[in-house]
Amino acid sequence: MSKLLSQPVKLALIQLATGANKTQNISSARSHVLEASRNGAKIIVLPECFNSPYGTQYFPKYAETLLPSPPSEESSPTYHALSSIAREAKAYLVGGSIPEYVTDTKKFFNTSMTFNPAGQLIATHRKVHLFDIDIPGKITFKESEVLSPGNKLTMVDLPEYGRIALAICYDIRFPELAMIAARPPCNAFLLLYPGAFNLTTGKLHWELQARARAMDNQTYVGLCSPARDMSATYNAWGHSMVVDPNAEILSEADADEKIVYADLSGDKIEECRKGIPLNTQRRFDVYPDLAQGKIMYQE
What we know:
With 299 residues, this protein is of the alpha/beta class. Helices cover 25% and strands 26% of the residues. It has helices at 22-38, 59-62, 77-89, 175-182, 199-217, 266-275, 278-281; strands spanning 9-15, 43-45, 92-94, 98-102, 107-115, 121-126, 132-135, 139-142, 154-158, 162-166, 188-194, 220-224, 241-243, 249-252, 258-264. Strands 1, 2, 3, 4, 5, 6 and 15 form a 7-stranded mixed beta sheet that branches. A 6-stranded mixed beta sheet has the order 9-10-11-12-13-14, with helices on one face. Strands 7-8 form a two-stranded antiparallel sheet. Strand 1 (9-15), helix 1 and strand 2 (43-45) form a beta-alpha-beta unit. Helix 1 packs parallel to helix 3. The longest helix has 19 residues, at 199-217. It starts with 8 loop residues before the first strand and ends in an 18-residue tail after the last helix.
Protein backbone atom coordinates (compact mmCIF):
# COMPACT_ATOMS: atom_id res chain seq x y z
CA MET A 1 0.00 0.00 0.00
CA SER A 2 1.37 3.42 -0.94
CA LYS A 3 1.99 6.01 1.74
CA LEU A 4 -0.72 8.56 2.43
CA LEU A 5 2.01 11.22 2.26
CA SER A 6 4.27 10.29 -0.62
CA GLN A 7 7.18 12.55 0.34
CA PRO A 8 8.08 14.76 3.35
CA VAL A 9 6.66 18.28 3.33
CA LYS A 10 6.99 21.36 5.51
CA LEU A 11 3.73 22.87 6.75
CA ALA A 12 3.39 26.49 7.91
CA LEU A 13 0.49 27.95 9.87
CA ILE A 14 0.39 31.74 9.90
CA GLN A 15 -1.10 33.13 13.11
CA LEU A 16 -1.85 36.50 11.58
CA ALA A 17 -2.70 39.72 13.41
CA THR A 18 -5.68 41.22 11.57
CA GLY A 19 -7.63 44.46 11.86
CA ALA A 20 -10.31 46.52 10.19
CA ASN A 21 -8.32 47.40 7.05
CA LYS A 22 -8.77 44.65 4.45
CA THR A 23 -5.95 45.92 2.23
CA GLN A 24 -3.51 45.90 5.13
CA ASN A 25 -4.65 42.43 6.20
CA ILE A 26 -4.01 41.05 2.72
CA SER A 27 -0.63 42.80 2.51
CA SER A 28 0.40 41.36 5.87
CA ALA A 29 -0.76 37.91 4.78
CA ARG A 30 1.41 38.18 1.66
CA SER A 31 4.51 39.13 3.68
CA HIS A 32 4.06 36.21 6.05
CA VAL A 33 3.30 33.69 3.30
CA LEU A 34 6.44 34.69 1.43
CA GLU A 35 8.47 34.43 4.66
CA ALA A 36 7.12 30.92 5.20
CA SER A 37 7.97 30.02 1.61
CA ARG A 38 11.53 31.28 2.02
CA ASN A 39 11.80 28.99 5.04
CA GLY A 40 10.86 25.97 2.95
CA ALA A 41 7.13 25.59 3.57
CA LYS A 42 5.21 24.04 0.67
CA ILE A 43 1.78 24.01 2.35
CA ILE A 44 0.92 27.36 3.92
CA VAL A 45 -2.24 28.14 5.87
CA LEU A 46 -3.89 31.42 6.85
CA PRO A 47 -6.42 31.77 9.71
CA GLU A 48 -10.20 32.01 9.70
CA CYS A 49 -11.48 35.44 8.56
CA PHE A 50 -7.93 36.60 7.83
CA ASN A 51 -9.00 39.58 5.70
CA SER A 52 -11.51 41.03 8.18
CA PRO A 53 -12.44 41.26 11.84
CA TYR A 54 -14.37 38.22 13.08
CA GLY A 55 -17.99 38.89 13.99
CA THR A 56 -21.50 38.73 12.54
CA GLN A 57 -21.60 42.52 12.41
CA TYR A 58 -18.60 42.51 10.04
CA PHE A 59 -19.49 39.71 7.62
CA PRO A 60 -21.79 41.72 5.28
CA LYS A 61 -19.38 44.66 5.04
CA TYR A 62 -16.32 42.55 4.22
CA ALA A 63 -18.03 39.86 2.13
CA GLU A 64 -16.86 39.18 -1.42
CA THR A 65 -18.61 37.50 -4.33
CA LEU A 66 -16.77 34.41 -5.57
CA LEU A 67 -19.28 33.11 -8.12
CA PRO A 68 -19.25 32.77 -11.02
CA SER A 69 -15.63 31.63 -10.79
CA PRO A 70 -13.20 33.13 -11.39
CA PRO A 71 -14.67 36.36 -10.01
CA SER A 72 -13.63 39.79 -11.21
CA GLU A 73 -10.99 41.58 -9.18
CA GLU A 74 -13.64 44.10 -8.16
CA SER A 75 -15.93 41.33 -6.89
CA SER A 76 -13.18 39.55 -4.95
CA PRO A 77 -9.84 41.28 -4.46
CA THR A 78 -8.94 38.57 -1.92
CA TYR A 79 -9.36 35.77 -4.48
CA HIS A 80 -6.95 37.48 -6.86
CA ALA A 81 -4.51 38.35 -4.09
CA LEU A 82 -4.39 34.74 -2.85
CA SER A 83 -3.89 33.45 -6.38
CA SER A 84 -1.00 35.84 -6.91
CA ILE A 85 0.56 35.09 -3.51
CA ALA A 86 0.42 31.32 -4.07
CA ARG A 87 2.09 31.76 -7.45
CA GLU A 88 4.76 34.04 -5.98
CA ALA A 89 5.40 31.69 -3.05
CA LYS A 90 5.38 28.59 -5.29
CA ALA A 91 3.39 26.82 -2.58
CA TYR A 92 -0.05 25.42 -1.85
CA LEU A 93 -1.94 28.19 -0.07
CA VAL A 94 -4.97 27.52 2.11
CA GLY A 95 -6.53 30.97 2.33
CA GLY A 96 -7.97 30.65 5.84
CA SER A 97 -11.47 31.90 5.27
CA ILE A 98 -13.31 35.03 4.17
CA PRO A 99 -16.96 36.12 4.26
CA GLU A 100 -18.61 35.19 0.96
CA TYR A 101 -21.80 36.65 -0.52
CA VAL A 102 -23.85 34.83 -3.16
CA THR A 103 -25.89 37.30 -5.17
CA ASP A 104 -28.44 34.78 -6.53
CA THR A 105 -29.53 33.56 -3.11
CA LYS A 106 -28.50 36.63 -1.07
CA LYS A 107 -26.77 34.27 1.36
CA PHE A 108 -23.51 34.75 3.25
CA PHE A 109 -20.99 31.96 3.90
CA ASN A 110 -17.72 31.52 5.79
CA THR A 111 -15.56 30.27 2.93
CA SER A 112 -12.03 28.93 2.49
CA MET A 113 -10.19 28.81 -0.83
CA THR A 114 -7.10 26.73 -1.63
CA PHE A 115 -4.72 27.62 -4.47
CA ASN A 116 -1.94 25.55 -6.02
CA PRO A 117 1.61 26.84 -6.72
CA ALA A 118 0.48 27.98 -10.17
CA GLY A 119 -2.12 30.23 -8.55
CA GLN A 120 -5.09 28.11 -9.63
CA LEU A 121 -8.07 27.60 -7.34
CA ILE A 122 -8.24 23.88 -6.52
CA ALA A 123 -10.75 23.73 -3.64
CA THR A 124 -13.44 25.73 -1.87
CA HIS A 125 -14.92 24.88 1.52
CA ARG A 126 -17.90 26.58 3.12
CA LYS A 127 -18.09 26.15 6.89
CA VAL A 128 -20.51 23.27 7.45
CA HIS A 129 -21.27 23.70 11.15
CA LEU A 130 -22.12 27.25 12.23
CA PHE A 131 -20.81 28.59 15.53
CA ASP A 132 -23.99 29.04 17.57
CA ILE A 133 -23.26 28.82 21.30
CA ASP A 134 -24.50 30.30 24.55
CA ILE A 135 -22.34 29.76 27.65
CA PRO A 136 -24.07 31.75 30.44
CA GLY A 137 -21.94 34.50 31.88
CA LYS A 138 -19.15 33.96 29.36
CA ILE A 139 -20.02 34.09 25.65
CA THR A 140 -22.98 34.07 23.31
CA PHE A 141 -22.32 33.95 19.58
CA LYS A 142 -24.62 32.99 16.70
CA GLU A 143 -23.11 32.85 13.23
CA SER A 144 -26.48 31.71 11.90
CA GLU A 145 -27.82 35.25 12.43
CA VAL A 146 -25.94 36.14 9.23
CA LEU A 147 -24.30 33.05 7.74
CA SER A 148 -25.65 29.99 5.97
CA PRO A 149 -23.91 26.60 6.26
CA GLY A 150 -21.99 24.81 3.55
CA ASN A 151 -23.15 21.36 2.54
CA LYS A 152 -20.12 19.23 1.69
CA LEU A 153 -16.97 17.56 2.93
CA THR A 154 -13.89 19.04 1.25
CA MET A 155 -10.89 17.00 0.13
CA VAL A 156 -7.96 18.63 -1.66
CA ASP A 157 -5.60 16.74 -3.97
CA LEU A 158 -1.95 17.78 -3.80
CA PRO A 159 -0.41 15.63 -6.55
CA GLU A 160 3.15 15.73 -5.19
CA TYR A 161 2.11 14.71 -1.69
CA GLY A 162 -1.35 13.18 -1.28
CA ARG A 163 -4.73 14.40 -0.04
CA ILE A 164 -5.66 16.82 2.70
CA ALA A 165 -9.03 17.59 4.27
CA LEU A 166 -10.18 21.13 4.86
CA ALA A 167 -12.74 22.37 7.37
CA ILE A 168 -13.27 25.54 9.41
CA CYS A 169 -13.18 26.12 13.16
CA TYR A 170 -16.43 24.78 14.67
CA ASP A 171 -16.34 21.94 12.12
CA ILE A 172 -13.64 20.32 14.28
CA ARG A 173 -16.18 19.59 17.01
CA PHE A 174 -17.90 17.13 14.70
CA PRO A 175 -15.55 14.15 14.42
CA GLU A 176 -17.55 12.57 11.61
CA LEU A 177 -15.91 14.88 9.05
CA ALA A 178 -12.43 13.89 10.25
CA MET A 179 -13.22 10.18 10.41
CA ILE A 180 -14.49 10.12 6.85
CA ALA A 181 -11.57 12.20 5.58
CA ALA A 182 -8.92 10.03 7.21
CA ARG A 183 -10.30 6.66 6.06
CA PRO A 184 -10.53 5.08 2.61
CA PRO A 185 -11.42 6.21 0.04
CA CYS A 186 -10.46 9.77 1.11
CA ASN A 187 -7.18 8.91 2.90
CA ALA A 188 -6.13 12.35 4.09
CA PHE A 189 -2.62 12.68 5.52
CA LEU A 190 -3.52 16.06 7.05
CA LEU A 191 -6.68 17.58 8.53
CA LEU A 192 -6.59 21.38 8.38
CA TYR A 193 -8.80 23.72 10.41
CA PRO A 194 -8.43 27.49 10.07
CA GLY A 195 -10.24 28.55 13.24
CA ALA A 196 -10.88 31.35 15.71
CA PHE A 197 -11.76 29.81 19.07
CA ASN A 198 -12.33 32.44 21.78
CA LEU A 199 -10.83 32.77 25.25
CA THR A 200 -13.54 30.57 26.79
CA THR A 201 -13.73 27.71 24.29
CA GLY A 202 -10.04 27.97 23.42
CA LYS A 203 -8.91 27.33 26.97
CA LEU A 204 -11.36 24.44 27.30
CA HIS A 205 -11.10 22.61 24.01
CA TRP A 206 -8.65 23.97 21.38
CA GLU A 207 -5.73 21.66 22.17
CA LEU A 208 -8.05 18.85 23.21
CA GLN A 209 -9.89 18.88 19.87
CA ALA A 210 -6.66 18.98 17.86
CA ARG A 211 -5.14 16.06 19.70
CA ALA A 212 -8.39 14.08 19.73
CA ARG A 213 -8.82 14.33 15.95
CA ALA A 214 -5.18 13.28 15.48
CA MET A 215 -5.42 10.39 17.94
CA ASP A 216 -8.71 9.01 16.61
CA ASN A 217 -7.60 9.16 12.99
CA GLN A 218 -3.83 8.65 13.29
CA THR A 219 -3.06 11.51 10.96
CA TYR A 220 -1.62 15.02 11.13
CA VAL A 221 -3.82 17.89 12.30
CA GLY A 222 -3.22 21.62 11.87
CA LEU A 223 -5.19 24.38 13.62
CA CYS A 224 -4.53 27.94 12.42
CA SER A 225 -5.87 30.83 14.52
CA PRO A 226 -5.67 34.58 14.18
CA ALA A 227 -3.39 36.27 16.70
CA ARG A 228 -5.09 37.55 19.84
CA ASP A 229 -6.14 41.21 19.90
CA MET A 230 -7.62 42.27 23.23
CA SER A 231 -8.79 45.58 21.71
CA ALA A 232 -11.00 43.75 19.19
CA THR A 233 -14.67 42.93 19.70
CA TYR A 234 -13.82 39.21 19.45
CA ASN A 235 -10.72 37.85 21.15
CA ALA A 236 -9.16 34.84 19.41
CA TRP A 237 -7.40 32.20 21.49
CA GLY A 238 -4.33 31.92 19.25
CA HIS A 239 -2.14 28.88 19.97
CA SER A 240 -2.01 27.68 16.36
CA MET A 241 -0.58 24.17 16.44
CA VAL A 242 0.44 21.11 14.48
CA VAL A 243 -0.23 17.69 16.01
CA ASP A 244 1.28 14.43 14.77
CA PRO A 245 -0.53 11.07 14.28
CA ASN A 246 0.37 10.06 17.84
CA ALA A 247 -1.39 13.20 19.14
CA GLU A 248 1.87 14.84 20.15
CA ILE A 249 2.15 18.59 19.61
CA LEU A 250 4.97 19.22 17.13
CA SER A 251 4.82 23.02 17.29
CA GLU A 252 2.59 25.64 18.88
CA ALA A 253 2.32 29.44 18.95
CA ASP A 254 1.42 31.54 21.95
CA ALA A 255 -1.22 34.27 21.54
CA ASP A 256 0.88 36.67 19.43
CA GLU A 257 1.50 36.85 15.70
CA LYS A 258 3.77 34.00 14.67
CA ILE A 259 4.44 31.40 11.98
CA VAL A 260 4.28 27.81 13.20
CA TYR A 261 6.24 25.20 11.22
CA ALA A 262 6.27 21.41 11.19
CA ASP A 263 7.87 18.74 9.01
CA LEU A 264 5.36 16.07 8.02
CA SER A 265 6.39 12.53 7.11
CA GLY A 266 4.48 9.61 5.64
CA ASP A 267 6.74 7.28 7.65
CA LYS A 268 5.35 8.72 10.88
CA ILE A 269 1.78 7.94 9.85
CA GLU A 270 2.74 4.37 8.90
CA GLU A 271 4.70 3.86 12.12
CA CYS A 272 1.78 5.02 14.25
CA ARG A 273 -0.78 2.89 12.40
CA LYS A 274 1.45 -0.19 12.50
CA GLY A 275 1.98 0.13 16.24
CA ILE A 276 -1.70 0.67 17.05
CA PRO A 277 -3.53 -0.87 14.06
CA LEU A 278 -6.95 0.73 14.45
CA ASN A 279 -7.68 0.51 10.73
CA THR A 280 -7.72 -3.31 10.82
CA GLN A 281 -9.43 -3.59 14.21
CA ARG A 282 -12.62 -1.62 13.64
CA ARG A 283 -15.80 -3.69 14.03
CA PHE A 284 -18.04 -2.70 11.15
CA ASP A 285 -20.10 -5.79 11.94
CA VAL A 286 -21.04 -4.05 15.20
CA TYR A 287 -21.32 -0.43 14.03
CA PRO A 288 -21.43 1.28 10.61
CA ASP A 289 -18.44 2.56 8.65
CA LEU A 290 -19.17 6.27 8.28
CA ALA A 291 -16.78 6.50 5.35
CA GLN A 292 -18.99 4.20 3.31
CA GLY A 293 -22.24 6.08 3.88
CA LYS A 294 -23.92 8.81 1.86
CA ILE A 295 -21.37 11.64 1.79
CA MET A 296 -21.72 14.99 0.07
CA TYR A 297 -18.59 16.00 -1.85
CA GLN A 298 -20.41 18.59 -4.00
CA GLU A 299 -22.68 21.47 -2.97
